[in-house]
Amino acid sequence: MKKAVSLLLNGETLPQLFITIIRYVLPSEDHTIQRLLLLYLEIIDKKDASGKLLPEMILICQNLRNNLQHPNEYIRGVTLRFLCRLHETEIIEPLIPSVLQNLEHRHPFIRRNAIFAVMSIYKLPQGDQLLVDAPEMIEKALSTEHDQSAKRNAFLMLFTCAQERAINYLFSHVDKISEWGEQLQMVVLELIRKVCRTDKGEKKGKYITIIISLLNSPSSAVVYECAGTLVSLSSAPTAIKAAANTYGQLLLSQSDNNVKLIVLDRLQELKSSHREIMVDLVMDVLRALSSPNLDIRRKTLDIILDLITARNVNEIVQMLKKEVVKTQSGELEKNGEYRQMLIQAIHSCAIKFPEVASTVVHLLMDFLGDSNIASASDVVIFVREIIETNPKLRVSIVTRLLDTFYQIRAARVCVGALWITGEYCLSLSEVESGIATIKQCLGELPFFSVTEEGEVTDTSKKPPQQASSITVSSRRPAILSDGTYATQNAASETAFSAPSVIHGSLSSGNLRSLLLTGDFFLAAVVACTLTKLVLRLEEVQSSKVEVNKAVTQALLVMVSMLQLGQSSVLPHPIDSDSYDRILLCIRLLSNTGDDIRKIWLQSCRQSFVKMLSEKQLRETEELKAKAQVSHAQPDDLIDFYHLKSRKVRTP
Residue ranges of the Clathrin/coatomer adaptor adaptin-like N-terminal domain (predicted)? Predict the structure, then answer.
């Protein structure tokens, strides 16, 4: 039988096999054989080329009738299920009395399949003639049925074939709807959606009352469907708020991440159409950040950022600050990526509402030395923008930046921090602190030294312990251990191996560490920052001696960086752009004019302010363009539901 079914599914006809199966397989009492037999009967062609029923098909009617009266419940159930997939009226008609008898069987498995069989027969082209009083029988069975699955099938049959009877039954049992099973409640919601789409009558309020009562159902699936049905049927604030609250509860109660993402999608849709109502529920939505899943957190933050108002911004920022502090625990693998999302969210809040910047900027500056370069870069971009848009915070930000500068480990973050230092250190104490901080992070100069023996060593490295080999302090010949003579050079070569450059550490300075890796773009930024600080020192420092001292120290740093770039210590030499930039700074400090001073101290800041204003203008235009997006095209079809037939749904 399995082989025959496989061949039929692959396109074979096997007409000669039918009689053999009728003779030898049909009488079998084995349940597996009977199931395969019904599958075989479902697949084979039952009509000839002219569309008439094949004569031999009448042979199976008696067997099906016997199965419908079989003492075994399984045989009865699978046969009734088989009849649901049978469309030949000639075969079904003799079996109708047996099908109707099973509606009153003691076993619920048979009753629920019998109801489905009645519904399938009634939906046939001439089914209303075969079972004239089927809706009445099913309604009677529904009123006496106690099994939830069978009740669901009976109500579905009325909903599909006799909608008015289903509506009458629904309103006559309104008080008991909350006690019905989950499956039956889902069918009720489907009925309400269908009725309200086709009939905009006065009963809509009653249906909404039923939906609201089902919001207290213990089933999450029913509650979710209720919320979606409410949104589709009503735009009243109470209904939308009830649906939003329901989504919020599901978001917190469900552990499945896929369910959470689906609920967040529904909240996103509510936000676009009912933003005012969603604003009141923003803190409930924000609690979804407790999920460890990054996709859920990202989608939650996207929803929240569009719901920020002057009334709730402080609460939201406080919540985001707590989440940032939690990421320092390091318990989760993707804490760095989550921290970056939080920093971007806080940045967005601070740009929209500058008054909250003072509460978050110092906390975020602790993450300038974060191992996650992306989040540290976001922090420095945030600080750069806040220090320009909030002049009152300038002094505290500069002080905090100089205090934490040594913690920065990423070149990209160092570049941003150096630019802020050069642009916003304005007072004498700030300028001197800025120069001192940079010198401290660069370490001792020069970056390497060449000894008499031609050996290259890093000056930040302490001299090694004296080895057991011979040390010569003059150029006079020396007697080696093998009795031969050697000059001091030869003796030095045998005594010491060529040392390698040791990159900077916490003790030698973060800037030094990065420069010794060959990052000469950073060297050019250091030179530019020192140039700006020295030029500003000339304006705020009355002592020429101190100014000349600072100029000399800055020139020494720049020359040392050029020397490092042209040496053989690093695997590649300095690039021409960085070389020209550092050389320009040296020439500028050697001979400064008023025009050049104005360009370095004023024009750069003005360009940054212009960039910020253009960015804000661009974001405003994007929001306007997004608001003007048309949800319907001019050539879209218009759906006139009044012109549709109530029974036949046009495609």
Answer: 1-430
Q: Residue 88 CA to chain centroid, in angstroms? A: 52
Query: Residue type for 639, please?
Result: D
Average pLDDT, the chain: 82
Amino acid identity of residue 445, one-letter, is L
Whether the CB-CB separation of 250 and 224 falls below 8 Å is answered with yes
Give Cα separations from 373 to 265, 334, 347, 358, 360 (angstroms). Answer: 31, 13, 17, 24, 19
H-helix segments, 481-603: 488-495, 510-515, 520-540, 544-566, 576-590, 594-598
| DSSP string across 229-249 | HHHHH---HHHHHHHHHHHHH
Helix (H, G, I), strand (E, B) or coil at 565: helix
Q: Which two tokens stand for residue 187?
A: 């069918």
Is it the case that residue 237 has pLDDT exceeding 90? Answer: no
CA distance 84 to 95: 12
Q: Which residues of 319-330 are buried (b: 16+ CB within 10 A; e: fewer)?
A: bbbebbebbeee
User: What whole-number distance in Å separates Cα of residue 299 and Cα of residue 402?
Assistant: 36
Q: Are strands 478-479 and 485-486 parallel, antiparallel or unpaired?
A: antiparallel
CA count, 13 A, side-chain hemisphere, 302: 13
The answer to whether residues 405 and 441 touch, using CB atoms and an 8 Å cutoff, is yes
Q: Residue 530: what residue type?
A: L
Dihedral over Cα of 622, 623, 624, 630: its sign: positive
Q: How many CB atoms lie within 10 A of CB 517?
A: 13
Tokens representing residue 273 in the block:
């159409």
pLDDT of residue 642 exceeding 60, the answer is: no
**486, β-bridge pairs:** 478
User: How confident is the model over 18-29, as pLDDT tens digits?
Assistant: 888 888 888 888
pTM above 0.85, yes or no: no
**8 Å CB contact between 401 and 407:** no
Single-letter amino acid, residue 41: L
Cβ-based burial of 334 (10 A; exposed 0-12, middle 13-18, buried ≥19): middle
Handedness of CA 147, 153, 156, 158 (dihedral sign): negative
**Residue 474 pLDDT > 60, yes or no?**
no
Query: What are the Cα distances from residue 568, in Å, to 147, 456, 510, 563?
Result: 88, 9, 22, 10
The DSSP result for 61-117, as a single string, is: HHHHHHHHT-SSHHHHHHHHHHHTT---HHHHGGGHHHHHHGGG-SSHHHHHHHHHH
Nearest Cα neighbor of 416 from 380, 470, 382 is 380
CA distance 444 to 556: 11
Residue showing tokens 């020439």: 587
Largest Cα span, the chain: 127
CB 316 within 8 A of CB 305: no
User: CA separation (Å) from 523 to 58, 344, 415, 577, 601?
Assistant: 95, 29, 9, 11, 20
For 469, residues 6+ apart whose C-beta sits below 8 A from its C-beta are: 494, 495, 496
Long-range contacts of the stretch 237-243 (C-beta < 8 A, 24+): 237/274, 237/277, 239/208, 239/212, 240/270, 240/274, 240/277, 241/277, 241/280, 241/281, 242/212, 242/215, 243/270
Q: Would you call 584 exposed, middle or buried from its count of C-beta atoms within 10 A (0-12, 13-18, 19+)? A: middle
